[in-house]
Write a structure and sequence with these properties.
Helices cover 45% and strands 15% of the residues. The two termini are 32 Å apart. It is globular, with a radius of gyration of 17 Å. By secondary structure, it is α/β, with parallel strands linked by helices. Helix 1 crosses helix 8 and helix 3 packs parallel to helix 4. Helix 2 links the parallel strand 2 and strand 3. Strands 3-2-1-4-5-6-7 form a 7-stranded parallel β-sheet, sandwiched between helices.
Length: 247
């Protein structure tokens, strides 16, 4: 198939559900051995078993650098290589205006959505540099470009992920490592259960296609960015927004 990944090892965080699950399945279908990484180990195990082949579950708490480092070491012990990292895991946070957001609300979203991406990327980059090859794909959000009301922690952290992607992409641009991001608009996953119907309508009404996206549609973009064919693309943010993106 196009963008073949045979022999490669991929880690997908938050892969027990939603977009992460769709990405894990897509990369596995392309030939990769996929680490279905999630805080929910039993859920990750179910997905890995249903994928079959070389897929395996990986317990990880991306908000803790020690957990991240241990998980990455486990993959290297098991597979001997990490070719692809997809930083997908994220949380929406509490739906509320800024004056109702507490320190804990902000810290919780920052720990997962931003620091989780930092910890995972920082952990695999030395290995990728040593091998002079790697692909890192960060799942951002259109909210990181436009900002969604009552979602300031989420919007701010996703904006930070885009900036982080561009920065790290430039740092390793001459070492065979491509670092890119994908910015979906609203996708029909369980994360929407954390939002009000009013919030979902606000986001959907601004999509020219007038619908939510599917996890498989995001996985298709990630697949290209994870492949060897993505050889002259780095530090970019690909919108998958049904036409909503304004820049």
């Amino acid at each position: 198939m196009a963008f073949e990944l045979t022999g490669q090892t991929a880690i997908v965080t938050g892969a027990a559900t939603g977009i992460g699950e769709a990405i894990a399945r897509r990369l596995a279908k392309a030939g990769a051995s996929v680490a279905v990484a999630d805080l929910n180990l039993s859920g990750a195990g179910e997905i890995a078993r249903s994928i079959g082949g070389d897929a395996f579950p990986l317990e990880i708490d991306i908000s803790r650098s020690d957990s991240v480092n241990a998980a990455m070491a486990e993959v290297l012990t098991r597979r001997g290589r990490i070719d692809i990292l997809v930083n997908n895991a994220g949380i929406a946070g509490m739906a509320a205006p800024i004056w109702e957001q507490s320190d804990a609300d902000w810290q919780g979203v920052i720990a997962v959505n931003l620091l989780g991406v930092v910890y995972c990327t920082r952990s695999v980059i030395p290995h990728m540099r040593q091998r002079q090859y790697g692909r890192v794909v960060n799942i951002a959000s259109i909210a990181g470009k436009e900002g969604n009301p009552n979602m300031s922690p989420y919007s701010a952290t996703k904006a930070a992920v885009i900036g982080f992607t561009k920065s790290v992409g430039k740092e390793v641009a001459t070492e065979g490592i491509c670092v890119n991001a994908v910015a979906p608009a609203v996708i029909r996953t369980r994360i929407l259960d954390q939002l009000t119907e009013q919030q979902v309508s606000y986001m959907t009404d601004r999509i020219p296609m007038r619908r939510t996206g599917s996890p498989d549609e995001i996985a298709a973009v990630v697949h290209f960015l994870s492949s060897r064919d993505c050889s002259f693309v780095t530090g970019q943010c690909y919108d998958a927004s049904g036409g909503r993106a304004t820049y």
